[in-house]
Amino acid sequence: MIPEPAVLFDVQRVRADFPILGRAVHGKPLVYLDNAATTQKPQAVLDALTRYYTEINANVHRGVHELSERATEAFEAARQRVCRFLNASGPSEIVFTRNATESINLVAQSFLRPRLQDGDEVLVSAMEHHSNIVPWQLVGARLRVAPIDDRGELLLDEMERLIGPRTRLVAMTHMSNALGTVTPAAEVVRIAHRHGVPVLLDGSQAAYHMRVDVRALDCDFYAATGHKLYGPTGIGVLYGREAHLEAMPPFLGGGDMIRTVAFERSTWNALPYKFEAGTPDIAGAVGLHAAIDYLDAVGLDHAARHERALLAYGTQVLEDVPGLRIIGTAPDKSSILSFVMDGVHPHDIGTIVDREGIAIRTGHHCAQPVMERFGIPATARASLAMYNTIEELEALGRALARVREVFG
Amino acid sequence: MSADLDDLYQEVILDHNRRPRNFHALADASHQAEGYNPLCGDRLTLYLRIDDGVIREVAFEGSGCAISKASASLMTDAVKGRSTADARALVDRFQRMVTTSPELEVEDLGKLSALAGVREFPVRVKCASLAWHTLKAAMERKISVSTE
User: Fold this and answer.
1) Going from the N-terminus, what domains does chain A have, and what CATH number goes with each?
2) Which residue of chain B is at minimal alpha-carbon distance from A372?
3) Which of A246, A268, B58, B141 has the most CB atoms lying inside 10 A of its own CB?
4) Tens of pLDDT along A333-345?
């Protein structure tokens, strides 16, 4: 049966696919609004993990036996799937990592470090997650910081002015985890490339809210993580342009990443295996494959439209709470509601709404420079995913009214 | 509101959060320490003037949640006039109170007992403890006189 156009996206049907959403917390129905930290997993992903471990489990790229071949097939099929999902040129451009953090560290250690000289710079934005700051510091790069305005919008002209002869890389979030700002990533890449500078995009937040096309973005590297894509924890992805990956030395040494090993000298495996030392998270990759299939079946565009409606509604709900201020009001923004309340610290907000079964994040969100920029120690953050509902945002509004009652 | 939330956000705590006592710098402090909870971003500076082993003056500055602020405020009232040995013992008694399992009886620490409700909220115990850890550190940290 062909669904009516009006029900292209049925949130109740989506919710039914996520078993955890049926549970209670502190005796109240769970309202999960901490999706920017990690998303919940649909049954299809849980089933894929179980099926993998009950029917296939073996190590990859090693055995001639049936199970090892099946496991290798499943692992490589997952790579193909990610390749298509990000629209990379080929699977050799998709490296499996543990998470986006590891993907960024891989680029810092293998791409940047060898070409870095004293005083060389990496240009980041003022709204980066710590994982797009610290890896560059670890290899000794000097950070230049593209500013943002009071709404949390990237100042592109200022950014371009900060690109200089010492700039070795632009490393920029595609969507801020603390503010929700969606950066004009393609424009950032165009500007950086005009100055001959390669670009890494941190897609941890963007990849599950919008369609990512690495070739349209024309970026050099793209980091993403599986557990925010409704997939399992422990599996991440680095997209890298093949020419870059070819030229880069390995990141970690061990099994699978080598062609030959001798005590005098070893040689490296082909792409992308050169960067995948040791037994990978095979089940994680299989789970990620199932998550992407699920996301595609639901329709990322439909989900994004639903999330836009939720964001608009949630913004209204928050604006109705006396003394509440939303942090991050960029015109191009997605799925994040960061806020502070007069006279109430975010942790107290978090504790009180938790007792209503509502999970939000409080703190600096691993983005201390963002807090600094807005002159606040922390925020409370409600972050949305495709299974959230208008009713849940109303529950949040009621819980925040209660916070106001307690603190006056 | 649920009963354990009422236990946590008692009137005493809300009052000390709204109007923290001894909430200022201390120009003639003899001891000082910074407390920082990197997980929450709670931050406080504690000032002490210790004469003859007695805490004559105590004050604090900083920002944090209601629990950490009220705890610091109540603490300053509680330790003013105490010997450092006595204050150290109180730190231990307080720590015992906030880390004892909620089903068990705890020592009555007067006004400080308002913070016993934090036991129901394990992730908030460190908010209540921050000022007390900082007090212990401050008693060990004499300000050097060579500054400026």
Assistant:
1) 5-41+299-407 (3.90.1150.10), 46-297 (3.40.640.10)
2) B41
3) B58
4) 999 999 999 999 9
